[in-house]
């Protein structure tokens, strides 16, 4: 009996400490700049999660320590049904581990690639889901700053949820130096290294709905400089003749007001509620959506992630990686990378 008690305490200690040993890896869902995302099962309760496993060496090489720590810190303060929530974060000598909600519908980029365009009802629903997630972030004083289809994931019911807080920031008046983002979705004021606010996220929302409507972005180019030159040379606006068949004028007006180059002219800059209150949403039931009682018009077929192989393992053995990880000064910057939602709830 005494041995059983010892084992129970050992298991409790391992659970409290958080370790990769507490999870069973089932499938690979995707690959990113720092590592891979896996579908995992928590051994304690058989709960399924997505686990982002990131190589410390790659993070160091790409000078992204601040970004990954920032994402963990922000996610520890956030929890909402329209974002991808964090459950725990931990590390070992070589990797960082981020345990998140598992969403099986695939990201919006995958569905744009598959469908090219969407119906007005589908695009409006996507827009509404994004607006709710942004409303929550903005109320916390946070600008996402990297809103794009790759960072919007569908759950199995068809609700769109926002993820990747790597370059999200708590707003501050002097933020002109925060110029990270994705060309094509980056607001002109961010690209031109000017101070910016939540209107930067609204610009990206306009680009995404433009893309769902017309199958392309308003400003395209092979490089950031080409896109910047396009933005500076002309103000793109959807003409009535460009609207797809059966799309309303209100939809085009909504997008046009969001993709305004000058933030002071952009919908939502003066009053964020103007985005929800635009005529395009006059008959939209926001309360029903907030409660997730809305019937999504677009149902995602089961998304199985990237095509896996027998080589899809966690390890990334590289001599240069080991050399980087011997630098204690660099590795100490990861010290605060830990979070246990269960422990927070108990407190």
From TrEMBL:
GO terms for biological process: intracellular signal transduction. GO terms for molecular function: ATP binding; protein serine/threonine kinase activity. ATP binds at residue 52. Residues 282-347 form the AGC-kinase C-terminal domain. It comes from Paramecium sonneborni. CDD domains: STKc_Yank1 (cd05578). Keywords: ATP-binding, Kinase, Nucleotide-binding, Serine/threonine-protein kinase, Transferase. It comes from the Eukaryota. This is non-specific serine/threonine protein kinase. Residues 23-281 form the Protein kinase domain. Its EC number is 2.7.11.1.
